[in-house]
Design brief:
NucS_N_sf; RecB family endonuclease acting on branched DNA substrates; elongated; DNA binding; 3 domains; mainly beta; six-stranded mixed beta sheet; Protein Yojf, Chain: A; 257 residues; endonuclease activity; NucS_N; 21 strands
């Protein structure tokens, strides 16, 4: 029988590979640990390798988020995972089964996809469709609303000076545009007195209109404006407490501000 080898798992591989059979697992790092038995080997999309036997929930051997994983099948199977000085090698003596299953990150259900009708779930700062794979990044601190946009997607609420209810698809409704409409030129630069413009530079910022002559700029926090700081800039109520638009400002901590 000729060997058929799978290459190193690419980052775009979203399948879980499952091998079952009589295997020897060898873990090498500071020491060497070896186990043999009828086990199930799971290779996850993030290159985590788990070797499970019949006892308990904890694997007998594992390597989390390995730098590389190589899988081969020939008279059984073998899996080799490496991460720095750690190596986990699993050698199959007999193969009871092999399968590859599609996998996604599990998240909190938030509705149905208007494109395919499958479930939308929220996980890791985004909402994804379990069917067609559409993915919508969420602003920091955003909450999902029960209302829906005309496009069929749920709306979200993000606080950037005011609460903004917008579609989660930024190509449908833009948080940047909503914040810009409310606050562009609303505040003065504390250094030169020119207008602060609402811009995106990695994140939303209020940056001086005189740039590059004046390089003053402030990241807009997740929260609502509740007043004016002692320095003259807006004061925000955020999930961690009140703070000035200027995160380094201490005037917002003074009594009466």
């Amino acid at each position: 029988m000729s060997e058929t080898a799978d290459p190193v798992l690419p980052e775009t591989d979203h399948s879980i590979r499952v091998f079952a059979g009589e295997c020897t697992s060898i873990y090498d790092s500071d020491g060497r640990e070896e186990h043999r038995g009828h086990v199930t080997v799971v290779v996850k999309p993030d290159n985590t390798v788990l070797v499970h036997d019949a006892d308990g929930y904890q694997p007998v051997a594992w390597l989390t988020r390995a730098d590389s994983v190589t899988c081969a099948r020939d008279r059984g199977f073998s899996v080799t995972a490496r991460s720095g000085e750690e190596t986990l090698r699993v050698v199959g003596h007999s193969e009871d089964g092999y399968a590859s299953y599609p996998a996604t990150e599990a998240g909190v259900p938030v509705g149905s996809c208007p494109d395919c009708g499958r479930s939308l779930v929220r996980a890791s700062g985004a909402v994804s469709c379990l069917g067609c794979g559409n993915r919508y990044g969420l602003p920091a601190g955003a909450s999902i609303r029960s209302e829906h946009c005309e496009c069929g997607l749920p709306r979200l609420r993000a606080e950037r000076g005011l609460p903004f209810d917008i579609c989660m698809d930024r190509e449908c409704e833009s948080l940047d545009a909503a914040v810009r409409e409310e606050f562009d030129r609303a505040w003065d630069c504390p250094e030169c007195g020119d207008d602060l413009r609402i811009l995106r530079r990695g994140g939303l910022i209020a940056g001086c209109d005189s740039y590059p002559d004046c390089e003053t700029g402030f990241s807009i926090p997740a929260g609502t404006v509740v007043g004016t700081c002692g320095c003259g800039l807006p004061l925000f109520e955020t999930p961690t407490g009140r703070r000035c638009l200027d995160a380094t400002c201490e005037a917002s901590e003074l009594p009466g501000t």
